[in-house]
């Protein structure tokens, strides 16, 4: 895991990794408790992305096939 804190709260971009070293997910933390997340397939490529508010999916979420074509967009 890579990231930084400000006043004991996560701040800015955080990165999480699979044991293989590949990126697992990224998060952009904001001060209003909204966090934008990107999740990746272990083999590479974006899996899904969207906002989490208090650990719940909120608003638009996009889900992708492993070939990076859009599978589904939920609002």
Q: Name the poorly predicted regions.
A: none
Mean pLDDT: 92
Largest sheet: 7 strands, antiparallel
Number of E-state strands: 7
Secondary-structure-derived class: mainly beta
Helical segment count: 0
**Tell me, what's the shape?**
flat
For the biggest β-sheet, the strand order reads 1-2-3-4-5-6-7
What string gives the helices and strands in order?
Answer: EEEEEEE
Distance between the termini: 29 Å
Please give a structural write-up.
This protein is an all-beta fold and 75 residues long. The chain contains no helices and seven strands. A seven-stranded antiparallel β-sheet has the order 1-2-3-4-5-6-7, with no helix packed on it. β3 and β4 (34-40) form a beta hairpin. It starts with a strand and ends with a strand.
Structure, briefly:
The chain has 75 residues and is an all-beta fold. It has strands spanning 2-6, 9-17, 23-29, 34-40, 46-53, 56-64, 70-74. Strand 4 (34-40) and strand 5 (46-53) form a beta hairpin.
Question: What is the topology?
Answer:
Layout: E1 2-6, E2 9-17, E3 23-29, E4 34-40, E5 46-53, E6 56-64, E7 70-74
Antiparallel strand pairs: 1-2, 2-3, 3-4, 4-5, 5-6, 6-7
Key features of this structure:
mainly beta; 7 strands; about 80 residues
């Amino acid at each position: 895991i890579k990231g930084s804190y400000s006043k004991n709260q996560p701040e800015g971009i955080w990165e999480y990794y699979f044991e293989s070293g590949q990126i697992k997910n990224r998060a952009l933390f904001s001060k209003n408790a909204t966090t934008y997340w990107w999740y990746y397939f272990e083999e590479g490529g974006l899996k899904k992305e969207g906002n989490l508010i208090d650990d719940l999916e909120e608003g638009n979420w996009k889900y992708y096939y492993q070939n990076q074509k859009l599978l589904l967009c939920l609002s």
